[in-house]
Structure to design on (244 residues):
C-alpha cells in the first residue's frame, strides 16, 4: 500500500508485513492511550482491540487526542475506531466500551492478541490487568504515572521493578510481589519527581467535572502524556518487528 511506503523504506518489507499481521490491544484511550493508538494505526498495525468505558469530558481537551469541543459527551472507543479507520480503512478494529476488571477479561481477550498496551488510569484495574497478562503469557507494556511531570527528557523505558520517582510504580511493585511477580513488566515512566501535589477540588468543581465526590484532580500536559503514548507504541512495534 502506497500510504505505508515511508515505513517500508525505513523498516523493510518483511517488518512491514509483520506489522500488518500484528494484533494489539490498547486498554485505556485517554491522554496516553489515544496517542499510542494513533501511532499504531499510522504504522499499519492490522488488528486493534480498543478498550475504554468513558466518554469525552471538557477537562480532557488539554491532553487527549479525541477530545474537542465537538466530541464532548461522545464515546471514546467510537471516536477512536472512526479515527483509526479514517487513517487505515483496512485495519480490523474491535471496540469494547466497558470497565476493565477481572469480570471483563474473558470478554476482552476472547480472541488472541500479540501485545497489550496498558494505558489505564485506575490503580486496581491496572494491577489486575498486569497480573492477568503475566500469568497468561501475554506480552504487556505498561504506562506508569504521567501526571505531575513536566520534563520530557526524564521519560524512560524499563522494567517496573527498575523504576524510581514514580509513586504508581512503587505501589505496583509491592502488590505485584505479593502476587508472585518480581520482574518482566516493561513500562514507560518518568525519572522526574512529581512537581506539585494534587490540588483538592471544591464541591462545586467536583460537581462540574462529574467526579461524584472525587477529592482530587492531577495536573498534566499533552507533551508528557503524548510522549508516553508514543514510546509505548514504539516499543510495541519494536517487539513486533523483532519477533521471528
Amino acid at each position: 500500500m502506497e500510504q505505508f511506503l515511508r515505513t517500508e523504506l525505513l523498516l523493510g518489507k518483511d517488518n512491514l508485513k509483520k506489522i500488518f499481521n500484528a494484533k494489539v490491544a490498547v486498554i485505556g484511550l485517554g491522554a496516553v492511550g489515544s496517542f499510542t493508538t494513533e501511532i499504531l494505526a499510522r504504522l499499519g498495525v492490522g488488528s486493534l482491540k480498543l478498550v475504554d468505558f468513558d466518554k469525552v469530558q471538557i477537562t480532557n481537551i488539554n491532553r487527549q487526542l479525541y477530545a474537542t469541543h465537538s466530541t464532548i459527551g461522545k464515546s471514546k472507543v467510537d471516536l477512536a475506531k472512526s479515527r483509526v479507520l479514517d487513517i487505515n480503512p483496512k485495519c480490523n478494529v474491535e471496540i469494547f466500551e466497558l470497565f476493565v476488571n477481572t469480570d471483563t477479561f474473558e470478554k476482552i481477550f476472547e480472541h488472541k492478541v500479540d501485545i497489550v498496551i496498558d494505558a489505564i488510569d485506575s490503580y486496581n484495574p491496572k494491577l489486575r490487568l498486569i497480573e492477568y497478562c503475566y500469568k497468561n503469557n501475554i506480552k504487556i507494556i505498561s504506562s506508569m504515572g504521567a501526571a505531575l511531570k513536566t520534563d520530557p527528557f526524564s521519560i524512560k523505558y524499563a522494567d517496573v521493578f527498575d523504576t524510581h520517582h514514580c509513586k504508581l510504580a512503587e505501589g505496583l511493585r509491592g502488590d505485584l510481589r505479593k502476587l508472585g511477580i518480581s520482574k518482566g513488566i516493561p513500562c514507560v515512566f518518568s525519572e522526574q519527581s512529581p512537581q506539585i501535589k494534587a490540588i483538592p477540588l471544591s464541591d462545586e468543581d467536583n460537581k462540574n467535572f462529574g467526579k461524584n465526590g472525587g477529592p482530587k484532580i492531577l495536573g498534566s500536559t499533552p507533551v508528557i502524556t503524548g510522549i508516553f503514548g508514543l514510546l509505548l507504541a514504539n516499543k510495541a512495534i519494536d517487539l513486533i518487528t523483532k519477533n521471528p
